[in-house]
Amino acid sequence: QVQLVESGGGLVQAGGSLRLSCAASARTFSNYYMGWFRQAPGKEREFVASISRYGGTIVYSDSVKGRFTISRDNAKNTVYLQMNSLKPEDTAVYHCAAKLTTTFDYWGQGTQVTVSS
Question: Over the stretch 79-113, which tens digit does the pLDDT of each residue have?
């Protein structure tokens, strides 16, 4: 069982930056492939980025590529999402998720990101 707690959300103007953190309670955090997802009001949950167990494989959605950076610190049991050049359409609740194999089975409660124009 893994518990995930996100932090770092808030209100920012368009063009600004935020850094999200996700702290995991896993005994062996490096066993887990991690991801960030987001859900805007009235929309389905959307994949944002993912990172493999030791960071060797990173994937971004086209909508955030070049603006967001995912990283992890296995010694701190934490995954990060650095978000730059934020746009109003990035407004959503951001969730981190963890998986051991094929599906993301563990989810955090989310942190709100609001980008004003």
Answer: 999 999 999 999 999 999 999 989 999 999 999 99
pLDDT bucket at 56, cuts 50 / 70 / 90: very high
Backbone angles phi, psi at 90, to 5 degrees: -85, -5
* Beta-strand relationship, 10-13 and 111-116: parallel
Tell me the residue type at 102: T
Are the CB atoms for 78 and 72 separated by under 8 Å? yes
Is 88 in contact with 117 (CB distance < 8 Å)? Answer: yes
- Tell me how far CA of residue 35 lies from CA of 58, 98, 116, in angstroms: 9, 6, 25
86-103: b or e for each residue (b if 16 or more CB lie within 10 Å)?
beeebbbbbbbbbbeeee
Q: Which amino acid is at 91?
A: T
User: Which amino acid, 49?
Assistant: A
As a whole number of angstroms, the distance between CA 28 and CA 53 comes to 10
